[in-house]
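Treating backbone geometry as a discrete language has practical consequences that deserve illustration. No coordinates are needed to read the tokens, only the vocabulary itself. For completeness, the protein is quoted in full, as a sequence line and a line of structure tokens:
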Amino acid sequence: MIDISAEGTALREELVELRRYFHAHPEQSWQEFNTQKKICDYLDALGIPYVKVCKTGVIATVAGKHSAGKVLGIRADIDALPVTELSEVAWKSENEGCMHACGHDTHITMLLGTAKLLKKMEDELTITVKLLFQPAEEFIADSGAGLMKDEPEVLTCDRLIAMHIWSKIPAGYASLRYGPVMSAADTFDFYVKGKGGHGALPQQTVDPIVAGAELVMSLQRLVSRELNPLEPAVISVTSFVSGTTSNVIPGEAHLMGTARTFNPEIRDRYPEMLRRVADGVAMATRTEIQLDYHPGPPPTINDDACVDTGRRAAERVFGKEHLLDWEQQMGGEDFAKYEAPKCLLFLGGGFSEEERRYPQHSPYFDIDESVLQLGVRYFCEYVREYEKEVQ
């Protein structure tokens, strides 16, 4: 039987090289063509069959010679963010204005390392493993999981697992919680229509800036006064654009923001709540206010059975004393869109020096590369633990 720990450790240098390649060559959502090619070239060299899906995605298959019909899907997102990297590492992004600032370069790397190790385990495998290289996780309006979840290869999966590198968790630690782990991540636009005019004659205008300001303050009362304080919830206005000069009251304003919660019932209430507040502000300020609400990924909620398996696997890799119940995250994750039972593990990637643990989406984001082999080992140990359950 293959020694997963030894084989994972032996991959360390190759994993670092792969990760640095992907980090230096990031591509934004739905533009991951070079990334797709690199993934396919690696799989070709291993002799692992795959299909290209969803424009820039890849799904590979490692079928055990003794597979009994069960299928496990392992997913990695592959896109980068529109962020200009400010660190000075040798493998700094070569694509101006684009950076792997959320660690997806490590996710690709760990899934490719998993592919290599599973190929070695092929003779002993009793399940089939689908490796999902998914594009466009960061594209909230039309994310990759929304399309990939309906691919025939994905619909065959009995369960799905994934991991997310997390720079605030120290390297060598991991978190695999029961229940909600990441928030729903919806967005919204408010379009405020007033009547422009001279800044010195406000009585002749209908001021969209005043209306927008009142709207921002009114929205804050939704969380503080209408929702249970024991339920985590966020409504944030993140952009307010109006006007062009100092002596003209503009005719329009545009506000953008995000609404987040772990509770699906609260999420369902958000559009009505925002629309009711907007209607009230519009009446009070004589403006017209249009709301466009955009559902993003739902809350990521770990399935109990999937977590049970994952915790046994994680104990073998990290040790029970290094398993945390890391706090729930208000960030969104489109892994939630997949319909099979699933779970997401947070993999600690934080440096020993606290000052180097820049958060996700920071232009200085980086991780301790020693954890790459731990991610590969976790995925492969999960395969083994799942095999024991379904035999």
User: Anything to note?
Assistant: The CA atoms of residues 314 and 378 lie 6 Å apart.
